[in-house]
TrEMBL record:
Domain Bulb-type lectin: 29-168
Taxonomy of the source species: Eukaryota, Viridiplantae, Streptophyta, Embryophyta, Tracheophyta
Natural source organism: Artemisia annua
Name by which UniProt lists this protein: PAN domain-containing protein
InterPro entries: Bulb-type_lectin_dom (IPR001480), Bulb-type_lectin_dom_sf (IPR036426), Pan_app (IPR003609), S_locus_glycoprot_dom (IPR000858), SLSG/EP1 (IPR035446)
Regions that span the bilayer: 429-452
Amino acid sequence: MVAIIPSELTQITLLLLLFLFFTVIYQPTFALTSNKELAKGFTATVDSSVKLFQPLLSDSVGNYSFGFIRVDQTQLAVGVVHVPSNEPVWVAGKSYLTRWSERTSLLFNGSLVIFDKHGGVLWSSNTDGDRVRVLGTSNLVIEKVGESKDDDVILWQSFDFPYNTLMENQNFTSEMTLVSSNGLYSMKLGPDFIGFYAKFDPDSNPGHLYFRHNPLEAKASVMKGQGPIRVVLTSDGFLGMYQNGSTPVDVQPFSSFQQRGTGNRLVRLEPDGNLVGYYWTRSSWVVDFKQISDVCELPSSCGPYGLCQPGKGCSCLDNKTSYSSGKCDIGEIKVSSNDFCQTKYKVMRKTGVELPNKEILDYIITSSLEKCESACEQNCTCWGVVYSNTSRFCYTIDYPIQTIVEVLDESKLGYFKVRYSPKNDKKVVGLWVGLGLLCGLVLLLLVVRGLFLYKRENRGVKGYVEEDGVNSGVGPYKNLGSSSFKSIELSERWRKQ
Ligand SMILES: *[C@@H]1O[C@H](CO)[C@@H](O)[C@H](O)[C@H]1NC(C)=O
Ligand SMILES: *[C@@H]1O[C@H](CO)[C@@H](O)[C@H](O)[C@H]1NC(C)=O
Ligand SMILES: *[C@@H]1O[C@H](CO)[C@@H](O)[C@H](O)[C@H]1NC(C)=O
Ligand SMILES: *[C@@H]1O[C@H](CO)[C@@H](O)[C@H](O)[C@H]1NC(C)=O
Ligand SMILES: *[C@@H]1O[C@H](CO)[C@@H](O)[C@H](O)[C@H]1NC(C)=O
Ligand SMILES: *[C@@H]1O[C@H](CO)[C@@H](O)[C@H](O)[C@H]1NC(C)=O
């Protein structure tokens, strides 16, 4: 007996060890793949059990990997992630493409092609190359292989089609656009500036300019007619603007610029409209640059009809409304038409307010606030104005009202239109009429029933009265709340670790 126990123990230990080996050591680490290049004929399908990322191809050291990215649990994007942090740094087509489904597939036949579950093409690189690789910079390239290594040509590279992120030494040129993951904001180069655009009105393209960075031109100047500018995030820790040659016309240093080494930086256009720089500390990404440093200068820091109070935070333009769960519910009715000649609106006024970044906005000069307001009142596409009683500048807002900045100067006034539907008033009236009718009906029923019982009792018949139909009258009210249900915006954000 005594001799058997140890051997049993060793058997159990062995089994346990084997179990550990298979669960811990042999657990497929999700971001590892042995593929260093894809050749013609490569195909892959989505694995439905994958939680975050399904790698298909990695760079030579495994810092970056290309594959299927799961977004918000149900959506699928195809792109390149930074493996240690699982952050997407590039996605095909600037968006998620379809739902996460195991019938979605990828093919490399010279082109990288992604098919939906019905075999339709969701995205294609439209190339005729020989192989696909991920370079150490995160750049996904499709190459034509030459006679010798030197004859290899890059036919297509993801660096030419950035999404919301710029990587080190990636050229950002005037042909390119960065788009925030919620699709609201974009960054584009002008002839001599970096422009940031907001698309609060879906019909406007590219939207209105909400911020602009002009070069300092300390060491070199932008020359007219000398070609377009480009912007590069350098390994030395600054965002440089160049025109010709390697002398920058502008340098925006990051707080981590003393940190040496390559492959540790990125800048991203975030869903709040800010361009933010990050430094990889080998365990996390830390912020080391913000293009717009003052929160109140962001285009919509407190949401629509919000009021940003410098140093204090958010409240609402309408002081009767409290700022809760990140927005101001001022009772605005969302209607498809932005035409104020077709839509009913009320007017909201506020003193001591200013538009964010008013320095870059157009204005007209009017002799009085009344003239400034009436210009807007008569304009079907005007959402509001902000007027300065001292400078007489009248700023027109021609997009849905976003966040306004509070200032101590009471001579700065705002006039804002709020869409509302008079139908709503009718609805309320209708509700009362309905309730009245219902009460009347119930009363009538009670009287009839009373009479009936009275008669029956008089006839001497007892019992047999079923109490039915009492609850049926409440039915129509149970769905009242559901019309206010709003679907969640799926494109909100990439999941942050
Ligand atoms: C690759 O496949 C796509 C989709 O079937 C097709 O449209 C395209 O012509 C093919 N490209 C090449 C180079 O064969
Ligand atoms: C960026 O542009 C410069 C100048 O045109 C060029 O020399 C450099 O190779 C480009 N870098 C990349 C990564 O394409
Ligand atoms: C891989 O990433 C680490 C950390 O960011 C970096 O130090 C290293 O240089 C990278 N390797 C290559 C080959 O770029
Ligand atoms: C709200 O604003 C109005 C006009 O700007 C002002 O007269 C009123 O006192 C404010 N109410 C509160 C509660 O702050
Ligand atoms: C209305 O305002 C828009 C935006 O400010 C402007 O472009 C347009 O010319 C104005 N229309 C009229 C009729 O004044
Ligand atoms: C605007 O300025 C005029 C004269 O400069 C003054 O009479 C008026 O009261 C001011 N209005 C406001 C709201 O400050």
